[in-house]
């Protein structure tokens, strides 16, 4: 039982410290260490208190075997010798249990205070929320004083009644069974931090069964409170990390050629091999041959006429006109046959 609780307690402690470390890192990346607020430093203090509380709960079972000044009959109390080892274990176990209750209360109220400070930053500019957060601060302070007073001064004077064995100090004055006495104070700040305060009932019920069970449930409850109290600060860190990972994954997928892209490239390649449509302003090779033949024919005819009229000075000017007719239907471009025009001037 003790080994099982030891593994559970320190595992929860490790997870809780990791959560607070992530919260601190998230705040550092968002605002920098120079802009840390009061709740950032209080959360670091809460981690120290959480470690001390876990150590106290562990020591109750490991060193004092879960013994305290509870669960004893009047006959057992009367016959137990003050010089016996059991008497020392029960006395010191009760003292450590009292310390554990005090650390438990301090840790929960530190977490409540951190969340209330966070609400203050979150509702800047909202006048009605400003009034509510101020009421929350007042309630947190008043209920903490009332709760810690119930824990430490519940037995009245003298203070040593908290670990008294004989005569019986009463169940309400035993640290391991005094949970119901001040459970009302634990739930007075539910309107500010309902997730933290609603679990106090578990610890109260377990406290009636001994110091070991009380310490076990205290560790579990404070672990849940630490995690819940830090989730609002950690969420932006995980959101940014997830967005970055998803964007990188999308970019890597888009850079890989898919089958659809391959078929598209093949179709484009096939399309590029198709013959290009002729430009309506360009002249094909066959048209050039026709123009060249007619040009030579006109020149030959002009030379023959020049030989027949050798007695006169004749200047022959040959002009070739090429006409084009562009038809829009079917993108067909037909070239009309060229004709020659011969202008003869006689001097």
Question: Explain this structure to me?
Answer:
- This protein has 347 residues and is mainly alpha-helical.
- The chain has helices spanning 2-31, 38-62, 74-79, 85-122, 127-152, 183-186, 194-197, 200-207, 211-255, 259-272, 285-308, and strands at residues 314-321, 324-327, 332-335, 339-346.
- Strands 1-4 form a two-stranded antiparallel ribbon. It has a two-stranded antiparallel sheet with strand order 2-3.
- Strand 2 (324-327) and strand 3 form a beta hairpin.
- Helix 1 runs antiparallel to helix 2 (38-62).
- It is elongated, with a radius of gyration of 49 Å.
- The N and C termini lie far apart (136 Å).
- Mean pLDDT is 74; it is low at 179-185, 187-209, 261-284 and 310-347.
Features:
65% helix, mainly alpha, 347 residues
Brief summary of the model shown:
By secondary structure, the chain is mainly α.
Q: Please state the overall shape, judged from the principal axes of the Cα atoms.
A: elongated
Based on helices, strands and strand pairing, what is the structural class? Answer: mainly alpha
Low-confidence stretches: 179-185, 187-209, 261-284, 310-347
Mean pLDDT: 74
In total, the number of strands is: 4
Query: How widely separated are the two ends?
Result: 136 Å
Provide the β-strand percentage band.
5-15%
SSE arrangement, N to C: HHHHHHHHHHHEEEE
Number of helical elements: 11
Spatial strand order of the main sheet = 1-4
Q: What does the main sheet amount to?
A: 2 strands, antiparallel
Q: In which range does the helix fraction lie?
A: 55-70%
Question: What would you report as the Rg, rounded to the nearest angstrom?
Answer: 49 Å
């Amino acid at each position: 039982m003790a080994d099982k609780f030891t593994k559970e307690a320190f595992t929860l402690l490790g997870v809780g410290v990791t959560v607070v470390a992530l919260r601190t890192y998230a705040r550092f990346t968002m605002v920098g260490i120079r802009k840390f607020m009061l709740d950032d430093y209080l959360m670091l203090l809460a981690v120290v208190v959480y470690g001390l509380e876990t150590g106290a709960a562990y020591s109750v079972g490991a060193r004092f075997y879960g013994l305290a000044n509870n669960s004893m009959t009047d006959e057992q109390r009367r016959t137990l010798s003050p010089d016996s080892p059991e008497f020392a274990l029960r006395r010191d176990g009760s003292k450590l249990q009292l310390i554990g209750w005090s650390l438990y209360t301090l840790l929960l109220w530190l977490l409540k205070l951190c969340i209330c400070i966070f609400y203050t930053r979150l509702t800047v500019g909202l006048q009605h929320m400003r009034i509510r957060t101020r009421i929350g601060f007042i309630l947190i302070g008043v209920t903490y004083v009332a709760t810690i007073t119930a824990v430490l001064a519940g037995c009245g004077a003298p203070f040593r009644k908290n670990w008294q064995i004989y005569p019986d100090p009463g169940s309400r004055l035993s640290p391991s069974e005094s949970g119901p006495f001040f459970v009302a104070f634990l739930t007075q700040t539910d309107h500010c931090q309902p997730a933290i305060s609603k679990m106090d009932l578990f610890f109260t019920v377990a406290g009636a069964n001994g110091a070991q069970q009380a310490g076990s449930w205290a560790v579990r409850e404070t672990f849940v409170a630490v995690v819940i109290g830090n989730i609002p600060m950690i969420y932006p860190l995980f959101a940014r990390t997830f967005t970055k990972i998803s964007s990188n994954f999308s970019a890597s997928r888009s850079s890989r050629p898919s089958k659809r892209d391959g078929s598209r490239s093949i179709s484009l390649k096939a399309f590029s091999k198709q013959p290009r449509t002729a430009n309506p302003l360009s002249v094909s090779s066959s048209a050039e041959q026709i123009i060249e033949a007619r040009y030579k024919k006109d020149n030959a005819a002009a030379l023959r006429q020049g030989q027949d009229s050798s007695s006169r000075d004749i200047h022959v000017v040959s002009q070739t006109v090429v006409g084009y007719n562009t038809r829009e239907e079917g993108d067909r471009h037909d070239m009309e046959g060229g004709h020659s025009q011969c202008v003869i001037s006689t001097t």
